[in-house]
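Sorry, any thoughts here?
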Amino acid sequence: MTNTDTILIIDDEVQIRRLLEITLSANGYRISEASTGKEGLALAAAGHPVLIILDLGLPDADGLVILKKLREWYLKPIIILSVRNSEEDIIKALDNGANDYLTKPFRTGELLARIRVAIRQSQGFTDQPILQFGSLIIDLANHTARKHNEIIKLTSTEFSLLALLAKNEGRVLTHQSILKEVWGMGYIEQTQYLRVFIAQLRKKIEDDPAKPKLLNTESGIGYRFSS
């Protein structure tokens, strides 16, 4: 099925905008473009794009400032596409509302996959009471999980952690955001605590915990659930 939803690109690099236009148009998306933060905010408000691709190095404002302004009202996915690749920049963007973060240069296939996941998630995929990822089935209403149709014994904390990650499939969640959501503000610095629980979950849901396919580590940043 052809996707006719509009994606807004906010990036001052003409070459990047052209590459994205060609790639996204070939995959059925409509494109809207802005070269400045101010123009991007105006187009976002007027055009109601299904997703925004945002650069952080804009000529008139830092991209993080634009991200924060967008998140005051824009609820759909925002993917950061930037040359900035420090953990600090990535974590700041994710903690301020970005759904995902890719660094330049990027692989177009990977970007398209991230876009599909982000749009699917925003269209209510995670509102379903039952999530299925291959042989893993997570019943959000009954707080149970099955693998190969057998109940997985999970503590309430383990289930809360698994449900949070699964409902945000494809999205990087930072250590701090996970700890805050599952354990509370008093635990946001306890990254080692989180690593222990992730290891426990991997033993229970992964075919090979040493080579996880579902619970993926984003080094120094957090975790991503991938189906």
User: Anything to note?
Assistant: The chain is about 40% helix and 20% strand. The mean pLDDT is 91.
